[in-house]
Amino acid sequence: MKLLLLLPTLNEEGALKALANEIPDEFEVLVVDGHSTDGTKDVALEHSWRFVTQRYGRGKGCGIKTAMEEFLKTDCDCLGIIDADYTCDPKEMTRMLQALKDENFDVVLGGRDRVMQLHYLGEFSLFINCLTSGIVAYLYKQKLSDIQTGYWLFTREAVEKILPHLAASGFDIEYDMLYNAWRLGLKIGEIPVSIRKRTGKSKFSVCNRFKQIGSGLKYLGLSLRHLYGRRRF
Ligand SMILES: Nc1nc2c(ncn2[C@@H]2O[C@H](COP(=O)(O)OP(=O)(O)O)[C@@H](O)[C@H]2O)c(=O)[nH]1
Ligand SMILES: [Mg+2]
Fold it and tell me: Is the Cβ atom of 61 under 6 angstroms away from ligand 1?
């Protein structure tokens, strides 16, 4: 199975340099960039990776939607996504791909180790992640422990089905992808993966944190409406 690995970037020059030697040779790499002002593009071109500037505006979600469109233009079978900030180990994607094949999943998430999350992301992020993941796992009846993960893997068919429904433009894209995968009846799996210390600065600001709470409530409402029908919610 041919895999296209997406690295969504916003000023990730340092992290991309560190990641470069770790990406398995068999993966094709696509960098979708949100108008970086550092040397992100140079690093991508230096390694002969495909480089595209995102369409539809600012935010990670616009980057992911652009990447899905670019993926559908290739002959690759699967789209893997990892955050390009060095927290995600690209080799985990090989294990995710194996799980996708073995279990016939349409979508696989990498569930990041919670002790490492506490260490690298802090108590508050871990608390929010446990809370939102717990609610989603209960409502969607799925074994999911980490819905805020940066590790995602989709079959081509899953991308074809999900893409027309994606509405999120920013960091709410993870809620959106999962909500639509579940709503469309795709087979979703999760396997345990590792995380590491970020290289460079996080783009997830305090303002983003508030927006993310609003988005979480929005997708909770949409999910409840999907489960119980329009009239009650
Ligand atoms: N294409 C694109 N990528 C983005 C944008 N904002 C953040 N990213 C990338 O999304 C990933 C996650 O962002 P990050 O800053 O690490 O957020 P955090 O993991 O929540 O701290 C990183 O690879 C970022 O470079 C954006 O506007 N466009
Ligand atoms: Mg990050």
Answer: no
